[in-house]
Design goal:
The protein has 396 residues and is of the alpha/beta class. It is built from twelve helices and 13 strands. 36% of the residues lie in helices and 16% in strands. The strands form three sheets. A six-stranded mixed beta sheet has the order 4-5-13-10-11-12, with helices on both faces.
Length: 396
């Protein structure tokens, strides 16, 4: 398996750059760079039947991933997570084809493993000697794990109120952890100071080209698990939005490869009512989202006041005929409980937000009862036990 990686392209000004050196954002305009592939060669040389017998990790799609030297394809078993039929929840909501993609079964218990696997692997391949990242929790844990796997030192900045389990996890995985008074945007400034001082390479969301490549494998997997068709609706919790951007990129690539047709899922971006810059921009018809002031929510991964890839998220939503909506923390808590007791999946609050959103979408008629709908359950609830209101426990 080799990579058809060709070059990098700016997602805003469309300038092209070579793919054989380390880049963060576009040198010309400061916007995200995206990896591009030799699609004609890939169309001729990479076919779905070649996937048979390959390991059930994201590296099964190595030809459409950026790591060229197989020695750098580090793995902890990430990807190819279960696509589960939610029959009981579906029946309760009047939905005959409701599914969940359970990303909590990735290494470090979240979808962040996908993006950081690729970002760390490619950074190592291109010569990075140390890595830094701002995090609300799960991204820092994933970066620490893959940096350890690659043998690179890792530094993480997290808000001071990050749940202690994340600090313990990142520390156990060898990262140096700093707690910051403020939000993830404040942590990002600390990381940038380290970049300016030459201390590490920045792996922030969409501030390097390759985290999105790991996230796009969710789109490839969905197509493969649905026998090379796509669902009608994808409901996705959105903080930095790399997952939506990545899947939208995957759908375009698969169409070019002639693996799927031109029909795309309607992309639904879900945010928390206490931090909803994408929802606000979508409702206003804005091309980019401004900063959300005083961001607050129990779903730490959704507490992102501003996303550098805001325009890419909004493009995917609008081009797909999708929508964006916000749900309250109380709705998120209720959904965590409902998913657990109904389907046996203990989910993170960000994941639970998708069920809360689904209720609104069913009630409004945005989703028809017979449509195939996928909820992205982006993380496990095991790191968020402090949010669970446990009933009185009986003594034996």
């Amino acid at each position: 398996m080799f990579s058809y990686l060709s070059h990098l392209e700016c997602s805003w000004c469309h300038a092209h750059y070579p793919a054989d050196r380390l880049y963060n954002v576009c040198p010309a305009c400061g916007r995200p760079l995206l990896a591009r592939y030799d699609m004609e060669a890939a169309k001729a040389g990479f076919r779905p039947e070649m996937l048979a017998g390959r390991p059930a990790t994201l590296w099964r799609y190595a030809e459409m991933l950026p790591v060229k030297d197989p020695a750098y394809r580090i793995t902890l078993g990430e990807g190819f997570t279960p696509l589960l039929r939610l029959e009981r929840l579906g029946a309760a909501l009047g939905q005959s084809q409701l599914y969940a993609k359970d990303e909590g079964l990735n290494p470090t218990a979240s979808f962040k493993a996908r993006g950081l696997c690729l970002a760390v692997a490619r950074a190592a391949e291109l010569g990075a000697r140390a890595l830094g990242i701002p995090t609300a929790g799960n991204a820092g844990s994933a970066m620490a794990a893959y940096a350890a796997r690659a043998g690179l030192p890792a530094t993480v900045y997290a808000p001071r109120d990050v749940p202690p389990v994340f600090v313990a996890e990142m520390s156990a995985l060898g990262a140096e952890v700093f707690l910051v008074d403020g939000l993830i945007t404040d942590c990002a400034r600390c990381v940038q100071e380290g970049v300016a001082a030459g201390r590490w390479f920045d792996l922030s969301t969409l501030k390097e080209p390759y985290r999105v490549e790991g996230k796009k494998t969710m789109g490839y997997e969905l197509a493969e698990q649905f026998a090379w068709t796509l669902p009608d609706v994808i409901i996705y919790p959105t903080g930095g939005g790399t997952g939506i951007v990545g899947m939208w990129k995957a759908f375009a690539e698969m169409e070019q490869l002639h693996w799927t047709g031109s029909a795309r899922p309607r992309m639904v971006s879900v945010q928390a009512a206490g931090c909803a810059p994408i929802v606000r921009a979508f409702e206003r018809g804005d091309e980019v989202a401004g900063t959300w002031e005083n961001a607050a929510t129990i779903a730490d991964g959704l507490r992102v006041p501003r996303a550098i890839g805001d325009f890419l998220i909004l493009q995917a939503i609008r081009q797909s005929g999708g929508t964006a909506l916000a749900v309250t923390d109380e709705e998120i808590r209720a959904a965590m409980s409902e998913i657990g007791r109904t389907e046996g999946i203990f989910v993170a609050p960000e994941a639970a937000a998708t069920l809360a959103a689904l209720r609104h979408l069913c009630q409004s008629g945005f989703i028809r009862p017979d449509e195939r709908v996928v909820l992205f359950l982006t993380g496990s609830g095991l790191k968020y036990t402090h949010l669970v209101r446990a009933p009185m426990v009986n003594e034996a």
